[in-house]
Amino acid sequence: MKNRVSIKDIAQLAGVSHSTVSRALQGTGRMSEETRERILTIAEELGYTPDALAQSLVRGRTKTVGVVVTTIADPFVAGIIDGIEQVAGDAGYTVILGASHMDPEREMAVVENLRQRRVDAVIVTASRVGSHYTEHLQRFGVPIVLVNNMVEGEYLYAIACDQREGARCATRHLLELGHKRIAYVGSPFREHSSQERQQGYEDALHEAGVTPDPSLISTPPLTQDVAVGRRAFQELWPQRPTAIFAYNDLTAIGIMLAAREMRVRIPQDISLVGFDDIEVTEYVTPPLTTVHQPRQAMGRAAMEMALGLLHDERVQNQRLACRLVVRASTQAPPA
């Protein structure tokens, strides 16, 4: 295997010191243009490439950012990662992903692995990490940006969609159609965001003079969103809700599958609203009414915030607006 070309090799051929080669390659220091050009030409002819690890030791930066996600299989997470990578790539940063799969021990192992890799900043989309391990994250000593999880802390900053308002809009839409028995299906392992959405749901009911019915709130203790939706619908249907607001679109798709198996028609027998507006919601039958979260914009904003913190800029937590997308899964309740 061909040996890697070093600064020492270039220095020997150019007849100059190591430090002169280093300054020429970095475009710094005083030297004649002839010497600088000779060094750069030799470096190019030898196929010299900088040693990223060595440079990081000199700079105290690795030009990497760690991203903690629940799973890359979640289309919502994929949209955020896409936004992060767009900004990171333009800034010359590499993204290192770690998936938690809803396992608290694995989540912390991911965070520890990122610490050992000396990433410059961390972006967390796994809400359990942000909510339960704030103290550990702060000991990390690098900027940490949380997505959809407003947690206070010295090193913690957040980008979030206004989930409570989005949930209020979704529930208000159902109320305006004439629904009164509206169920909510939550997520047991995303405590912060699920509570935010349930609060928005209850806000809308109270505003309409409807008392929330505890029997119409279901949060099955399962880790897969589609499975949560299936189980929740089986539990809720005997209570005869006329509409369901689901924690996210994958949960809503689980509800659709269970309803089809039980010969319950959407929206003729029951209306359904999701949250996130992932791509597939346009193509399921019927197309799903949902709350749109600007996933790529959230990812871009999170990475821009991380870069701002690394450049010692003052940043503020941001809340991005959600919006309701009405499709064919909602209509007035059956007579």
Describe it.
With 335 residues, the protein is of the alpha/beta class. Helix 1 (7-14) crosses helix 2 and helix 5 (75-90) crosses helix 13. The model has no long low-confidence stretch (mean pLDDT 88). The longest helix has 17 residues, at 191-207. The radius of gyration is 26 Å and the shape is elongated. It is built from 13 helices and 12 strands. The chain has a 6-stranded parallel β-sheet. A 4-stranded parallel β-sheet has the order 7-6-8-9, sandwiched between helices. The protein has a two-stranded antiparallel sheet with strand order 10-12. The N and C termini lie far apart (77 Å). Helix content is 45%, strand content 14%. It folds into 3 domains: 7-50, lambda repressor-like DNA-binding domains (434 Repressor (Amino-terminal Domain), Orthogonal Bundle); 61-161 and 295-320, Rossmann fold, CATH 3.40.50.2300; 163-294, Response regulator (Rossmann fold, 3-Layer(aba) Sandwich), CATH 3.40.50.2300.
